[in-house]
Specification:
Structural class: alpha/beta
Largest sheet: 6 strands, mixed
Number of strands: 13
Bound molecules: D-4-phosphoerythronic acid
Helix content: 25-40%
Shape: globular
Radius of gyration: 17 Å
Number of helices: 6
Order of helices and strands: HEHEHEEEHEEHEEHEEEE
Amino acid sequence: DAVNAGKKAAAIRVVDELVKTDQVLGIGSGSTIVFAVEHIAERVKSEGLKLTCVPTSFQARQLILEHGLTLGDLENFPKLDLAIDGADEVDSELNCIKGGGGCLAQEKVVASCAKKFAVIADDRKDSSHLGQNWHKGIPIEVLPFAYVPVMQKIKTTYGGVPALRMAQSKAGPVVTDNGNFLLDWKFDAEKKWDWNLINTELNLIPGVVDTGLFIHMAFKAYFGTSQGSVSTRT
Ligand code: DER
């Protein structure tokens, strides 16, 4: 459908433009990255590319294995050439909200280990400011035993509504690949936020593992449209 056409177009473009043989790649999580892994596998098959792929979640690990790509890890490959991942929203300065799929913690580590971090998305994610199109709030991974004091601290300090993310096909809260809980903080998108400062302050709250604010991390974003065209932002 239209949204998948955009995701696929962005995914193919980033792989054709940035993936080269002998690279160590960070593989993100979510639905857009699936198209990228499919295209990487096609290029490995047709061009004999030599690649090592480091996952950002159980889902990414399964994707890599299912497509016969070489699995790597940060113990053996602490420095990556390129990380590719999706996003829930990207603003005019390439700041991202990520974590809609609950994988933000490993995604941020892997992105931080890569020389270059590229974001791929359909054009619904292309915003001028965070909160313009993404209304589910900023995902924040927290230690399970601390989620109430962390929620209270966020609410009193920044306002808005932080909520524990409840699972759909499991009773109780979503549990991340790291065994933690997730808060989704619905913030006032009309306010002007210094997201770099907010990300730093949120990460200083005891019990916070990491946030879905990827600030000053992406070097380029690829937005695919339903007609299959791709626009980029650097
Ligand atoms: O959870 C995540 O950070 C994912 O990358 C998510 O933000 C993008 O998922 P999508 O490609 O399914 O939109």
